[in-house]
User: What shape does this take?
Amino acid sequence: MKIVPFDPSAFHQDHPAGTVSFNYLLMGDEPQSPENFRYILSRMDGDFYNPRHRHTFEQIRLPLAADMNLGEQGILHKGEIGYFPEGLHYGPQDDPLGDAKPGERLQLTLQFGGASGLGCPGRGPAARRPDGERRERRAMKFPRPRYNNVIILNPARFNWLPMRGAAGVERKYFGSFTERAFWIERIKVYAGAEWLSAVDGARRLIVALSGTAAANGTEIGRLSAIQAEAGEKLQIRAAEEMVLHIIGLPPVPMPSARSDEFDMVESSGATQFENPNQAV
Assistant: This one.
């Protein structure tokens, strides 16, 4: 199990656009595996633009401060949860800072391997190249999206329900997706209460959205992150009311018959980006 208190000094300007900094809260250590993932807190340091594109992996986004422009899919508002299916085009994104100061706009983004089995890259996309420098073109494989649009969830419209056998603990369940059956939920632990979690069949990636607590004896607060593997027991004892944002990742199931629901495209740039107008 990994329990990582938030480090506000750990931002790196890794995005190719040059105006977004990343704080890697949790990182998978299997870049060649379909189970790989990266959990990022992104910070906008300047006006942001990204052309229409798609990825070879799944994404779950949560704007913590200010909205996110999705382009043709509309707006992901502060506090909403957006699920971006692997292979789905979105954008163009045109997000000026507006009235916000550099560093004020924050967003949680989990990127992880989807049911296609194509996995997720390791830390950091390809670096920016000087203007005019030629990029090598190559054929890339993209999954055809299982859903036809970004799925946006409004947590405020879901009910907190009591957890059976756990006094002072409530849960919001937002849903499960694809044949991988990954899920999104939240747990609220009231001050002085205790929550015990153990799931045999899935990894749990957890970020504290508010409050203070002890996680297996380690003090955690807002934006602390926890990686609990299948079967590992997590104990949360809340000092102040704590809300935990949880994504469960079962193993990727592979079909017995090979799927042909993929596109081969000619791409330039980072492995997770693709110019939709350059099809092979």
About this structure: The CA atoms of residues 47 and 98 lie 8 Å apart. Residues 8-123+137-153 form a domain with the Jelly Rolls fold (CATH 2.60.120.10).
